[in-house]
Every structure is written in C-alpha cells, then in structure tokens.
C-alpha cells in the first residue's frame, strides 16, 4: 500500500504540469505577432511508476505527470526550401529594381529636356542634316545641325555619367551588404554559444534558436545559405552548428566562431570595348579577412570572374541567381559594362560614319572632320574643335565651317548622305572612295537599328527579371504559408489548449482537496487531534 500522502504528490505533480502547460500557452499567445517566433509545445509525460508489493507479485502504480520538455514546432525541410527560394526571390527582385532604374536613366537621359532619350536626339540630328540638304546655304539650318549635334554629344555624356553613378551606387551597396553579412555572422555565432551552453545543462533554448533562425532567414536574402547540424560527439546533449554561404559551401559560422569577409579595391585594368569598367575606376572585391582562420587555409575571393577584376586564390561561388549580393555583382560586373560598351560602340559608329562622309566634301579640306576623331566613346564624343575649320560652338562663326556638299558645289550631297544614316548605309559616288560596308557588318542595317536592338535587348533583361521575380514571389508565399501552418501561432488553437489545461488543472486541484478531506477525516475522526 502507498501512504495517504502519495495521492497528494500525484496531485501536486498534476498541478505543476498543467500550470507549466498554461505558461507555454501564455507564451505562445504573447508572441503570436512576433517575427520569427515558432509555436512552442509543452510535452507532458507520465512519471516513473511506484512499485508496491501485491500478493504474489509486484504492482506498478502511476506516480503522476511531469512536463518533460518544451519543443518548437519547426519543419527543417520547409526552412531549407524557403531559404533557397528566398535567395532566388531576392536576386530577381533586386535585379528587376536595378535594371528598371538603369532603363529609366536610359530613357530620360536627354540634354534636350525632351525626356525621350538618345533615340529622339539621334533622330533630331539626322533630321537637321536632312533640312540642311534641302537648303545648303541656309545659315539657320547649319545652326540647327550644330545645335542638335551638341545635344547628341551631351546626351551621350549624360547617359555615361548616369550609368557610372549607377555602377558606383551598386558598388557601395555591395560594401554595405558585406558589412551586414559580417554582422549577422557575429550575432549567429554569439547565439550559438548561448544555445550550446544551455543545451549542455539539458535545457532546450527555443527562443534563442528562434532568434538564430530569424537571422539566418535575413542572411538568406543577401546570399544563399546552408545549415548543418549534428550531435556533438563529446556531449550528446549539444548540437554542433555550421552555417555555409554560397554554392561553394564556404563556412561563415562554425559553432561559436564567426569568419569574416572584407572588401578591397581591385586593380584598375583596361578591358575590351564590349565589357569595360565604367570610368576606369577600381571596384570592390570581396575576400575572406586574413585575420580570421580559413578552413582551407587559403585567401579566397568572392566576386567577379571578369578579366577586368583581380583574382586571388580560389574563388568561392556565391551561387548563381541567388541573393541580392550576387545580383549586384552580376549587374555591376556584366550588365552595366556591357551596356556602356554598346553606347561606346554606337558613339564610335556615329563618329566614324559621319566623318567618313563629311571628309569627302573636299572643301574646306578632305582631312577636316565633323566629330573629333579621338572621341569614340560615350564619355568623349565631341564636335571637332581643332584644325582650320572647327565646327564646335566655341565660336559663332563656326557654323559657317559646316559643309553640306561636295567640293563646295552646294548641292547638299554630303548633308543628304549623312541624313540617310538614319535608315541605312548610303554610298558616296565611287570617285569619293568612301565605303561603309565595314561599319555595316558591325552595326547591321543602320545605326538606329543597332541602338534599337541594344535598348530592346536590355528591355528583355528587365522583362525576364520581372517574370522570374513574380514566379519566385509565388513560391515564397506558398512556402511561407507552409511554414506558418507548422510554426505559426493560432489564437483559436491556443485558446482550446488553454481551456484543456485549465480543466485539467481544476481536476487536479479537486484531487488535492478530496485527499485533504480524506486526511481530515482520518485526523479528526480518529481523535488524533488530541
């Protein structure tokens, strides 16, 4: 037989267990709107039974209940999927935002104030030559040619400067993101230390693990992440933790140790016309900080594989199309330089084609150019300001140096042929010796079509980014809903649990009062009070 007080102990345990479960419910309700919070579950378990001797055998009597553990409602597989898709979503979201900004700069960059961009200024330039061809002696038409030419060159300069600013802003953003990665790494390592210290005592630090997971979720927006957890061989209660970034599995956090990235300027180099660095500036490269231990003992570089950027050691990959950092690197190192290369090529084509026709005029001299022959990029294109017959607006009389016909005939042939560059590649008379076939092989049917192709090609990139972003948005929303279904706090469910635990607590209290009445009967009924 057990003692009378055995029942009181069972009741006490029941009260404590139900009170603990109610506390967990209260904690869930309190954090229903807390970002990153995971619903916690009170796991009740029967305590070790009490063995008594029965006639010819032993009998086990239940000894009550205890709150064994409090665990998080978490699905690691959903976490993995959500972080992977979040990295992709942020890549395309950031890419769409930056490309749209660049596209807007392309459309609005017009020194004429029309806001219609380079295409409009090119058309105005060709139209001015067409008007001059109709009235070669008209000084007003010459002035318009000069004015539209200045507008065209200024627009090239404006576009170049805006794209250079875009590239510089993205480079600054890259530096900021590296700093944010380092901050997250330190915070995650510090939390891991606290978690492991708590685990070593048998605790289950759910709130600390929520905080760490929330930081990892934020980190996954910048760069792809991979979490590895395993049981510590020295202490099975403790979970070893490793956080890798990028597809190359570069260790960023290992238990309580945080490795750090740093930014450094690459060596400026000359690149091809199709992929130049804008302005010849050095850009930020991302390396592992040498003051922190590297698992493979190397000094690795994250960033560009472009020949215009210095490389050191083995370059870890951030993961294709993942995270805002890789998105910025792709635009800064590839999309923007390629676009500037197109503008440089267009500027060079206009200078070469116009000068090729213009120098055949014969008067003033065959060696005089309309555009400065050394200004063959978007940043340097300019009207001829040297020689005996400059055409730039530095002097009011320079408009008289603009020629419209061959050998001073005043027939407007030169102006007409230049105007025809708007739609094709006109050929001068055979005696002039001009052949534009080499330009045609580079620029296609016309300079205008070359520019249209460049603009439409960039527009395709914007549309692709928008489409991919929309697709990833849907995936992330679906996975977020899946996670919330598992980890989110449902007030209705918590209220149901609260009533359940409340009723159980009331029943346990009733057991205690019943046993108290029994004890009172024994004490008072048997006269023990004396």
TrEMBL record:
**Single GO molecular-function term?**
structural molecule activity
Q: What is this protein called?
A: Flagellar hook-associated protein 1
Keywords linked to the UniProt accession: Bacterial flagellum, Cell projection, Cilium, Flagellum, Secreted
Write out the annotated subcellular location: Bacterial flagellum; Secreted
Q: Does the keyword Secreted apply?
A: yes
**Record family assignment:** Belongs to the flagella basal body rod proteins family.
The highest taxon in the source lineage is: Bacteria
Give one GO biological process term: bacterial-type flagellum assembly
Q: Which InterPro entries match?
A: Flag_bb_rod_N, Flg_bb/hook_C_dom, FlgK, FlgK_helical
Please name the SUPFAM superfamilies in this protein's record. Answer: Phase 1 flagellin
Span of domain Flagellar basal body rod protein N-terminal: 8-37
Query: What species does this protein belong to?
Result: Desulfosporosinus acidiphilus (strain DSM 22704 / JCM 16185 / SJ4)
Q: Does the keyword Flavoprotein apply?
A: no
Annotated Flagellar basal-body/hook protein C-terminal domain residues: 486-523
Alphabetical GO CC annotations of the entry are: bacterial-type flagellum hook; extracellular region
Domain Flagellar hook-associated protein FlgK helical intervals: 111-360
């Amino acid at each position: 037989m057990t003692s009378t007080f055995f029942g009181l102990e069972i009741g006490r345990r029941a009260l404590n267990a139900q009170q603990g479960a109610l506390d967990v419910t209260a904690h869930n309700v309190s954090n229903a709107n807390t970002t990153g919070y995971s619903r916690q579950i009170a796991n009740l378990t029967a305590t070790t039974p009490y063995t008594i001797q029965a006639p010819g055998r032993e009998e086990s009597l239940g000894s009550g209940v205890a709150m064994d553990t409090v665990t998080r409602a978490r699905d690691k597989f959903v976490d993995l999927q959500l972080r992977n898709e979040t990295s992709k979503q942020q890549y395309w979201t950031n890419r769409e935002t930056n490309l749209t900004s660049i596209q807007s700069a392309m459309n609005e960059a017009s020194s004429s104030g029309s806001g219609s961009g380079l295409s409009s200024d090119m058309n105005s330039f060709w139209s001015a030559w067409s008007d001059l061809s109709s009235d070669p002696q008209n000084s007003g038409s010459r002035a318009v040619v000069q004015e539209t030419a200045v507008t065209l060159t200024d627009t090239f300069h404006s576009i170049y400067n805006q794209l250079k600013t875009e590239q510089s802003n993205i480079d600054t953003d890259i530096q900021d993101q590296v700093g944010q990665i380092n901050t997250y790494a330190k915070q995650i390592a510090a939390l891991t230390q606290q978690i492991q210290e708590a685990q070593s005592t048998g605790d289950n630090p759910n709130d600390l693990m929520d905080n760490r997971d929330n930081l990892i979720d934020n980190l996954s927006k910048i760069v792809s992440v991979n979490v590895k957890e395993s049981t510590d061989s020295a202490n099975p209660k403790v979970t070893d933790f490793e956080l890798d970034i990028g597809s190359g599995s570069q260790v960023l956090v290992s238990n309580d140790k945080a490795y750090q990235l740093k930014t450094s300027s690459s060596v400026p180099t000359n690149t091809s016309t199709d992929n130049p660095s804008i302005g010849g500036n050095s850009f930020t490269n991302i390396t592992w900080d040498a003051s922190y231990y590297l698992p493979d003992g190397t000094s690795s570089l994250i960033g560009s594989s472009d020949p215009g950027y210095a490389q050191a050691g083995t370059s870890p990959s951030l993961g294709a199309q993942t995270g805002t950092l890789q998105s910025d690197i792709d635009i800064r190192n590839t999309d923007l330089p390629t676009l500037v290369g197109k503008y440089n090529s267009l500027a060079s084509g206009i200078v070469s084609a116009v000068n090729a026709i213009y120098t055949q005029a014969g008067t003033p001299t065959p060696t005089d150019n309309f555009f400065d022959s050394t200004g063959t990029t978007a940043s340097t294109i300019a009207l001829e300001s040297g020689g005996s017959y400059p055409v730039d607006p530095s002097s009011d009389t320079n408009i008289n140096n603009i020629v419209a016909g061959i050998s001073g005939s005043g027939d407007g042939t030169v102006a007409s042929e230049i105007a025809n560059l708007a739609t094709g590649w006109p050929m001068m008379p055979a005696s002039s010796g001009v052949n534009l076939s080499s330009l045609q092989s580079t620029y296609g049917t016309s300079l205008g079509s070359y520019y249209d192709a460049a603009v439409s090609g960039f527009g395709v990139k914007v549309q692709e980014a928008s489409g991919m972003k929309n697709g990833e948005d849907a995936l992330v929303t679906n996975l977020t809903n899946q996670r919330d279904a598992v980890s989110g706090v449902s007030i209705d469910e918590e209220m149901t649990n609260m009533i359940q635990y409340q009723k159980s607590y009331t029943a346990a209290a009733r057991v205690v009062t019943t046993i108290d009445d029994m004890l009172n009967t024994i004490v008072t009924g048997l006269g023990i009070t004396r």
